Amino acid sequence: MKVRLLGTGDATGTPKIGCFCRQCSHARDTDTERLRTSLLVSSNETTILIDTTPDLRRQLLNAGSPRISAVIWTHGHYDHFMGLGEFYRVQKTPPVYAAEPVMTYCGGIFSFLLNETKTVLPYIPFQIGDITVTLIEVTHPPVYTCGVILSDGRTRVGFTSDTNDQLPEKTLELLFGVDMLFVDGLFPPSFRKVTKHMNLDEADRLAARLGVVSYRIVHMSHHVPFDYQNQGYDGDEFVW
Ligand SMILES: [Zn+2]
Ligand SMILES: [Zn+2]
Ligand SMILES: [Zn+2]
Asked: 3-class SS at 25?
């Protein structure tokens, strides 16, 4: 199984339009970006895209133009699903998997483009090719949101998507000891408590509490320095 970080940024991406803070200036000077957070997961049999961001075209070009076998939507926020339109006239829109509230909202907006929708229940594993996928509920008020666990039978990868650190017990149990965790970390520790996301301290603490083998922070805002420990970078690939 191979996972590529297509993007590691938050809703605005970094650099943020109109911002000249230290990180945004550095990003512009060095041609570095944090595109919106999304993962590409591939195996011998399948290529799964987790979330379709508004940066999808650039992300797929950067990844070498893979053909996508299936899409999973985590939740109905603009930065996570509005890029589905990028499949138009590029490839047949892949089947899209999501929990019922997410499919109802996002699927309604994209009804003109969807060929195949697969509404799935959280905590019930399902198969996409040779990858076993489980949606796990997370806490991103007020929007219903799921993270994802992927397994090829040997390696388990967890993705929390957008969440605060108050995860349901069942979700914590399933994430325990994963080989790689991609974890939401929006702000530096000094920032005010946000109810929808974790700051970097909370992300580090969650990874430690879960006893994961390895982790990378994603969904970072422009306030997060580019040299913060354990952060993911756009284009990073992990192979097992
Ligand atoms: Zn987001
Ligand atoms: Zn900035
Ligand atoms: Zn969100």
From this structure: helix
Residue 174 is inside which H or E element, if any? helix 169-175
Q: Looking at the predicted structure, is the pLDDT value of residue 151 above 90?
A: yes
CB within 5 A of ion ligand 1: which residues? 77, 79, 162
Query: Ligand 3 centroid vs 140 CA: distance in angstroms?
Result: 7
Tokens linked to 17: 């339009």
Residues with CB under 5 A from ligand 3 (ion): 77, 162
CA distance 76 to 145: 8
What is the distance in A from the centroid of ligand 1 to the CA of 186?
9
Burial grade of 116 (CB within 10 A; 0-12, 13-18, 19 or more): exposed
Counting ligands in written order, the one closest to the CA of 223 is: 2
Residue type, 178: V
d(CA 44, ligand 3 centre) in Å: 31
What is the CA(75)–ligand 1 centre distance, in A? Answer: 9
Q: What is the DSSP letter of 35?
A: P
CATH, range 2-239: 3.60.15.10
- Reported as a single tens digit per residue, the pLDDT across 165-175 is 999 999 999 99
Cβ distance 7 to 59 under 8 Å? Answer: yes
pLDDT digits (tens, 9 = 90+) for 48-86: 999 999 999 999 999 999 999 999 999 999 999 999 999
Q: Using the mean position of ligand 1's atoms as its centre, give its distance from the Cα of residue 177 in Å.
A: 25
Number of Cβ within 10 Å of residue 213's Cβ equals 12
